[in-house]
Amino acid sequence: MKRTFFLAFTLLWSLLLTATALPQGEAFGPVRSAIRGSNSHDLAQYFAPTVELSFDGDKQSYSATQAEFVMKDFFAKHSPASFDFIHYGGSNEGTPYAVGKYAGKDGAYRMFVKMKQAGGALRIATIDFTKE
Question: How high is the pLDDT of residue 3?
Fold first, then answer.
């Protein structure tokens, strides 16, 4: 009985360690795909209940639904010619973030995306676009 418990505990612990050791950028894969495709609906699937959006320093907080419409409008006005994340990191508290380069047809933007734990999963808390 002790051996079975020990084996089950070891297996569970190994799975948890493996899950937390995923590369930081892996959490941003679906986000990257949604941005590349200028798909605000797919992007909104990863929004926290409240999202802070910033465009050249003009910051506002939105509900996930409102943020979806704001991003839809942004994509319509500034459709991406190319997009990719160029840096991934995390705060001391473990909050993951990514910095990207968003090249729209009307200019380039530096993009910052920060995620946080919400509802047991990583969700987008902040998106910041700064025109270069």
Answer: 57
- At CA 85, angle to CA 75 and CA 66, rounded to 5? 35
Helix residue spans in 21-132 (DSSP H) = 29-36, 40-44, 64-77
- Alpha-carbon distance of 106 to 32, in angstroms, equals 20
Which pLDDT tens digit goes with each residue over 23-82? 456 789 999 999 999 999 999 999 999 999 999 989 999 999 999 999 999 999 998 899
- Domains observed in the chain: 24-131 (3.10.450.50)
Helix ranges (DSSP H) in 21-128: 29-36, 40-44, 64-77
Whether the model pTM is above 0.85:
no
Contact predicate 25/36, CB 8 Å: no
Q: How far apart are CA 56 and CA 21, in angstroms?
A: 34
Measured in residues, the chain has a length of: 132
Separation of alpha carbons 11 and 34, rounded Å: 35
